[in-house]
């Protein structure tokens, strides 16, 4: 797939993977679902669900390093800044031949890499982010999308990046 193909598919993901309502219980359920998927698959990832600026769920599974904590924070910052997935932001920067620094941001605080996805509520927009770190960035992104699709009973095959 080309960057444009991925950006188009991610835009569709961000549109389709929107909740009617989302609260602290839903946030915990999303984090727990990701933890269960990762554990079943033996994935060493860090998982974070944040609403606004409030951490709701965090898990570090075997294989995670202290670096993953920082990657989670930096990827989440991309979502909370641009209200779109960190992977889409990174692909757009790559397509335009730019970096986060070109937008006046610090690479120490913003990571335009896959793995953080906006938590969107219909009629409200982005209220937080779900973030995965520990796999290659495309896999981090796909895992977050998979969990959202499962929670929202959406067809993952039509949403997943190839």
Task: Please describe the structure with a list of short key phrases separated by commas or semicolons.
PduO/GlcC-like; 162 residues; PduO/GlcC-like_sf; YBR137W-like; Beta-Lactamase; alpha+beta
Structural description of this entry:
By secondary structure, the chain is of the alpha+beta class. The protein has a single domain, classed as Beta-Lactamase (2-Layer Sandwich), CATH 3.30.450. 49% of the residues lie in helices and 19% in strands. It contains six helices and five strands; from the N terminus they run αβαββααββαα. The protein has helices spanning 3-16, 24-41, 66-82, 86-96, 137-152, 156-159, and strands at residues 18-19, 46-51, 54-60, 116-121, 125-133. The chain has a five-stranded mixed sheet with strand order 1-4-5-2-3. Strand 2 (46-51) and strand 3 (54-60) form a beta hairpin. Helix 1 packs antiparallel against helix 4 (86-96) and helix 2 packs across helix 5. The longest helix has 18 residues, at 24-41. The protein is globular, with a radius of gyration of 14 Å.
Mean pLDDT: 97
Helix content: 40-55%
How are strands sequenced across the largest beta sheet?
1-4-5-2-3
Q: What is the element string, with H for helices and E for strands? A: HEHEEHHEEHH
Shape: globular
CATH topology: Beta-Lactamase
Major β-sheet, in short? 5 strands, mixed
**Termini separation (Å)?**
7 Å
Structural class: alpha+beta
Query: What is the count of helical runs?
Result: 6
The CATH architecture comes to 2-Layer Sandwich
**What is the C-alpha radius of gyration, as a whole number of Å?**
14 Å
Query: What is the domain total for the residues?
Result: 1
List how many beta strands DSSP finds. 5
**Would you identify the regions where 5 or more consecutive residues have pLDDT less than 50?**
none
Q: Provide the β-strand percentage band.
A: 15-25%
CATH homology-level superfamily? Haem-degrading domain
Write down the CATH class: Alpha Beta
Protein name: UPF0303 protein RL3365
Family: Belongs to the UPF0303 family.
Pfam families: HbpS-like
């Amino acid at each position: 797939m080309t960057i444009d193909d991925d950006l188009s598919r991610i835009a569709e993901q961000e549109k389709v993977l929107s909740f009617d309502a989302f609260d602290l219980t839903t946030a915990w359920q999303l984090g727990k679902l990701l933890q269960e998927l990762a554990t079943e698959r033996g994935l060493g990832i860090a998982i974070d669900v944040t609403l606004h600026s409030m951490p709701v769920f965090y898990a570090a599974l075997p294989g995670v390093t202290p670096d993953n904590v920082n990657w989670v924070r930096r990827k989440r910052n991309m979502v909370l800044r641009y209200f779109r997935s960190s992977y889409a932001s990174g692909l757009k920067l790559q397509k335009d031949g730019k970096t986060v620094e070109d937008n006046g941001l610090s690479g120490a605080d913003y990571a335009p890499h896959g793995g953080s996805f906006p938590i969107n509520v219909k009629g409200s927009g982005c209220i937080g982010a779900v973030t995965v770190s520990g796999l290659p960035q495309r896999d981090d992104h796909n895992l977050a999308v998979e969990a959202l699709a499962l929670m929202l009973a959406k067809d993952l095959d039509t949403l997943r990046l190839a």
